[in-house]
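Troubleshooting: if your tokenizer reports a length mismatch, compare your output against this known-good record of 388 residues.
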Amino acid sequence: MGRAGAETALIELLKKLNGPGWDISLYVIMGQGEMISQLPGGVRLLNTQFCDQSVLSKEGRRKLIKTVIFAFFRNGNLLKKTGYLWQTFLAMQKRGKLQTDKLLWRIVSDGAQRFDETFDLAVAWLEGGAAYYVAEHVKAARKAAFIHIDYESAGYTKAMDRGCWKQFDNIFAVSDEVKGHFQSFYPEYASKVGVFHNFINQEAIRSQAMEQGGFSDDFKGRRILTVGRLTYQKAYDIAVDAMKILKDAGYHARWYVLGEGEERKALEKKIAALGLQEDFLLLGAVTNPHPYYLQTDLYVHATRFEGKSIAIQEAQTLGCAVIASDCNGNREQITDGSDGMLCELTPCAIAERIETLLKDEEKRKALGRAAKKKKIHQMENLQVLLGM
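Known-good structure output:
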């Protein structure tokens, strides 16, 4: 339950379902996360213990390590778990990219808490550990799973999944592109896959944007904002290079990033090497990012791949002009030149788009107005999920 888009969408879905006639239980496989405080009161938390610290905090990292170690020894099957770890490690090494989270998801899933209760509907909200857990260790009359990302680009493999998807009655992708990629990866399950768009509460976003907060510096130039975890997927290394181009071209601009993650140290090193300590600022995660959207001149979301970005939807809701990379997920949320701008994921292309809108204030405002008018259809999602 960390502060990320999928978790934000889950909280909004639970709020929609919370009420008379519903008996909702939630089990958080990692047993931690700072967003647990936002859980609706009527939702029953099944975890016997829960840590409300982010996995990115010092205390949260300690808890995460303990959870993984405990999961390895819990519920037996040590030889099976060891074999899976070794085989998956070798496969990742062959591909040239070690992804620790995906290496451990199966271990955490197999070592998670078990319940005797049989549910009417069990939902795996995330791919990976949650999907493995619901598929193999939860008893339910019906099972549904959600895919929030370009599945193959995120590094998942059939060897990791071990046929878990055949256990689900329905599989919901958060966008049409995510659906198409998953169906290409798993054509045998194509008939099970539908689209279920993320929930966001636009009224709450607008209200929270008017609260105190936002930028605390007295910078007088143009502000550029990005919201998202500091991960490889979010391509901040490329954004830093784009900022260097803008600075060298003489633009009086400052780029702010709200989010935390494992790439922080590498990014700080690169920022310092390029002399951008005053130009590209990593502000960390914040409880309420919405005032920043209102106070920025431009929102940029240049990522390597996406499912469907909550941050883009928040920026659009608050009337920001948005520049996004032309990748899976992003292109489904923006009509290039109409309610935002798309670009290649290169420093030069990003910098060029930013320059265009910094020079043309009217164009920037027009894109923001068009973005603010975009309609988000969500209520039909509930009918799809519950009707299955």
